[in-house]
Task: structure prediction
Amino acid sequence: MKDDKVKIVASGGLIGVLAALLVKFGNPVNMGICVACFFRDIAGGLGLHRAAVVQYLRPEIPGFILGSFGMAKAKGEFKSRGGSSPLLRFILGFFLMVGALVFLGCPLRMILRLANGDLNALVGLFGYVAGIWIGIQFLKQGFTLGKSTKQAAVSGYTMPFVAIALLILLLTAPAFIFFSESGPGSMAAPVVLALGAGLAVGAVLQRTRLCTAGGIRDIMLIKDFHYLWGLIGIFIFALLGNLIFNFETFKIGFEGQPIAHNDHLWNFLGMALAGIAAVLLGGCPLRQSILAGEGDTDATVTIFGLMAGAAFAHNFGLAASPQGVGLNGKVAVVIGLVIVLSIGYGVLKATAEIKAKGGVGANV
Result:
């Protein structure tokens, strides 16, 4: 057990240190690693939205996927599987992204923001925990998106192939790919460093299964603190990394934090939406990236939902800005909460009806 604790803390510590280094070498402050933001930037780079300040094919994302893929293949754990309520997963991924972009960051960036003194992230953390608690109530009543089944091998290779294609497009920079000339999208660590960091994180997390939602869920649901140690490792090592490498940007407080706003209600509700969706999906955006590298096509569908959510958020003014959350974003979060909760209740109702009719193991 002691060895397991050391491993999970070390895996979290790796993320924290690499995030601080990526900021040191060019990534936006408090955004050394942000899975939601990076998928948003990729969506912009592909032209799915035209917010000029957030368009870049972030190499960290292909790194996560290919790192997980390589480790899974090496350990004989790559398995092409899926078919577990793909449409619902797409919708949940869509609204997870909406919640994250109203908060301005994924659950991982929430921890990294806090490690650099951004107390707005503490409000987001309270919201995320509340959302996870709500999601757990569905799990306790038997919520499930159904069982995955074995898929054709080519299906499992979808995201690794997409990751390679993104890297090729990044390196060749054809005219139809968009690159920000200002704003967060223009701030990036060297490709080799960013890709290397992504590969390392992907490989390590494929072994440890660390997940921000899973860590908090397991504490509440089964009193298991294993993954919490990994989250603590992220925070502590990111904090140390920022104090060593990025001390000039370290600032404790609510005001004037980079790429953040202090609209507390919507920070809370945005991350609550993300928390509910992550629990119902079985993992946060980072965990979905790792699963996609292992051949899980359900995670791939979730990622497509995340990217669609990012494109929609910026095309229709749902994403927040450092000035706050606009009306469209507030309406989107409320709609998202209604839809995500409706999915939870709908699945529970369908499950109860199937059980009443004597059905077992049905995919709802």
Notes: The CA atoms of residues 3 and 46 lie 43 Å apart. The mean pLDDT is 96. The chain has 15 helices and two strands.
